[in-house]
């Protein structure tokens, strides 16, 4: 019985660690992408160009000038 409890404890601690690592990695990637895309020196202009391009496509497809 003690062996089973040790196994369960190890399993759940490893699973929790994996989820925590994934969440930290995801947060890091989102932060880096946000800084790059929204900074005026980085990709700010690129981000605005992408928005303008999508706006032109939407206006063309809907027929609105």
Automatic annotation (TrEMBL):
- Domain of life, per the record? Bacteria
**Sorted alphabetically, which keywords does the UniProt record give?**
Membrane, Transmembrane, Transmembrane helix
Where does the sequence pass through the membrane? 22-41
User: Lineage of this protein's species?
Assistant: Bacteria, Bacillati, Bacillota, Negativicutes, Selenomonadales
Protein's name in the database: Pilin protein
